[in-house]
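Ticket closed. Logging final result for Anti-sigma factor antagonist.
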Amino acid sequence: MTIDIEKVNDICVAALKGRLDVITSAELDGALDGLISSGAKKVLFDLRELDYISSAGLRSLLSAAKKLKAVDGRIALSSLNSNVAEVFKISGLSAFFDIRDSKDDALSVLA
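Final structure:
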């Protein structure tokens, strides 16, 4: 998995590409810890190029949401492909995240 991070105004956009699973979730956890320690309070996960997410990946995103909530931050997810969206739906976690169809829509919600 690769994580490309860009800043759009006061929002950190983390674009994930590849597979988010037990092997790569620690990388995501570390990247998020770095963002929060540098003062980030709004994070958008752009999942347009995320091919697969496992329960470990879901756990990492839930952990991200909890960490951001602890610093009065916000999280959003955008551009889920049908396979990843189905995992969120089946797990019931789609209700816990602000999931938007496009990156632009998610950015406007977090702004």
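The mean pLDDT is 95. No further action required.
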